Amino acid sequence: MPVLSKLRQFYIWPLVLLIVGNSLIMIKPIPPELRYAAVLILLAFLSGWVWLQAFSVRLDDMAERLVLAIGLSLALTTLAAMLAVYLPGPLTDSQLLIINNVLIGGGLIIIWRQRGGTRSPVARNFTLIFVALVILAAALRLPRLGYAEFHEDEAEALMLGVRLLQGEDYALFLHRKGPAQMLTPVSFWLLTGRLDETLARFPFAFSSILSATTLFFMGRRWFNWPAGLIAGLLWAVNGYAIGFGRMVQYQALIFFLGPLAIYCLYLAWQENQPRLQIPAAILLAACLLAHFDALLLLPAAGYLIWLNLNRQIKEQPSKAVTVLAVLLFLALLAAFYIPYLLDPEFEHTVSYLAESRVKPGFLYNNLKLLRRLDQDYSSHFYLPLVALGLLSFAVGQTLGFAQKWRWAALGLALLGGSTLWRPEVWQSGSSSLAGLPWLLLGLIYIWLSPSLESRTAWLMVGLPFIGYVFLVDDPRTHLYIIYPGAALLAGAGWAILTGKTTGWRREDKGTNILTTSPPSMLGLAAKVFGLIIGVLLVTLVVVYNVAVFLQTETSFSRLQTQWESSNWEMIYDDLPQPRTYFGYPKREGWKTIGALRAQGHFSGDFRSINEDFIIPIWYNYGQARSCYNTPAHFFVRSTGDEPPSTEYVETGQVQREGEVRLRIFSKQAETLINSPVYPLEKYEDTFDQLATPLQFAQQAEPTQKGDAQFGSAIKFVGYNLPTTTVAAGETLYLDLYWQALENPGRDYRAFVHLTDGATLWGQQDDDPACRLPTSIWRAGQRGMGQFRLPVNPETPPGHYPLIIGLYRADTLERLKITGGAGQPGDDFLWLRDIEITRR
Fold first, then answer.
1. How many C-beta atoms lie closer than 10 Å to residue 362's C-beta?
2. Distance from C-alpha of 95 to C-alpha of 303, rounded to nearest angstrom
3. For 741-773, what is each residue's pLDDT tens digit?
4. Per-residue three-class SS string for 757-796
5. What is the overall mean pLDDT for the chain?
6. For 603, which of 103, 323, 557, 728 is 20 to 30 Å away at the CA?
7. Full-prediction pTM beyond 0.90?
């Protein structure tokens, strides 16, 4: 075949994109927007597009192909980053870039060998609907995406990512929620070179936006296009989808990758394209790496896999594809979960889930929590919107049942309703039997569903509903997992309510709900009435979305004041308190603190008041809080607090939007008549410019190197000693740096002594690294402990040895020096002499 013809079939533009993208990433300096665009193409589009081509996937709708390519790319990015973590040494941009290039290049080679793969024509039938859904979902997720400071959960995941950059590979297992939430933003961060709230959150917002289109595709294929449109619309305005789509949170990945995997399995069966099970396996594995909530989607996925396998048993050449897909899925999960099962953190995770979520009672009733959280995230108009659609769908399906099953369904539905209005009737000791009628009702609808599409949808909503409403004591916002399946069924139900459909009929490409009755005046009136009610409810939900998610914190607080005793309060009730839920606006000005300290202001150790502990750590470029309650500085969130103690005076204020949000108190500072005011707007760009992987990953190094090994597991690597001269009665400041060679296995204490051999003139004992007991140290982990040694006021002037060592906390037995500096066999290490002067 002529080379030119082969290149045309090869789709040379992916290769060009790959080369250009790599060039833009590696060229320095370059505008950050251009670099981020290149990274977005490589990590969130190109790999998925190429591998769909390599799998010879045929999709007649370009929008479907595009969304599937993006979802597959994000899944592959997570898996590629996990592989990079497993490589020796710290996680680096070079490792990520090489792995992603090999991944994309491998797909291009397969396409070349296939002589161009399979072209997919562009279908325009639903392009406008697709674009409209994207615009609506984006309008509720992208405005002010970077306005709010990182929430505690976001900062925690990002700080664990920083530990991966520092070479602490075991940080992959410390999140308790799966690694995808840290691997996704860290991948983009490494390749772009900087991180701010917008850049960190965009992949999750992107996933949330496209999850609405995924439900549209599913509803359109499973039922008909009005059902798909309404399902996508219901999801676009869902408060959970919006709130978590505006954060670095795993939920957005599950919203997108889980339903997309199920859709791929469905298309594999419907279109008789068994190879679609391969991308489905990758998507589902990545979904489970985001959070174990995705386990509740496995029954729906398993049902479709079983259908595919049944079909392929009759077609021997393609039977191996299903087996291969299942093996790939298990292998990808094993790559994370087998090391995780062997890691000590797994036991802690199990204990956490058992004690704080499931608890011994086993049977519960969380229907009121479901209703309250739904109201707080989406207003009290959203649940009726979904419930009406679900009821319509269920009634339509029930009419097709035999009479005995109709009565059974009706009776169970009434009993189910009583579990909300009279929950005490279902209480039996410490357990609730409220889940029983719902379980039986769900089994009826799943078993008697007239189509595999509705059966799959019921599985998507039913198992999460039973699991988190009735089997978990404290599900909190994990109830979100119920809503994608509910939106699908509610979309089909509203299609019935608005007169678009009235019955079931099987077509060549699956089972669709289709209009079968002739139009009538009564039917037209019902259709108009249903449309008016639906549009009104959606509008009320959107107004609420804008009010609680898209405001600044200042405007939200002002709106809350104006809301009281207004018509809005009559319509919606009270607004939730600011900062209450995920995705609500929250902005204090912590970037100002980080930028000022990076410029040399307010140096020294610090603590914070009235803020989640991890937030100030992140906005100080990862610097840990002081080990002591008397640090050099306190950063206080709020405007009315008194100084931490009389030792501290106010030395600065941070303003956000003209309002003082943070106050800075410093120890042993001069009292100022007017504290300097530092506006956030002046310093936030300075902070963002410095927010590079290197800035966060660089670990504090001791000014004085050390090299002594205590026992078999702990190495002393150095110390900071600001001064070697101190007056009697004053305090000697010392920082000690340690590294674990292996897990020490028990708790050790460190001692610091100022002694002449006969008398202790100064002493402090503490954990070697504050807030980090040695029993949980990992091999290679580093830690720093701050020590403050009060010198006895009676100490005679002179020079005194400063010695350190370690001992067992339970027996007081000292560890011996086994190597490096110091005398092997000694149970202490001499650092240097300290000169004591008269006061």
1. 13
2. 38
3. 999 989 999 999 999 888 999 999 999 998 889
4. CCCEEEEEEECCCCCCCHHHCCCCCEEEEEEEEEECCCCC
5. 88
6. 728
7. yes
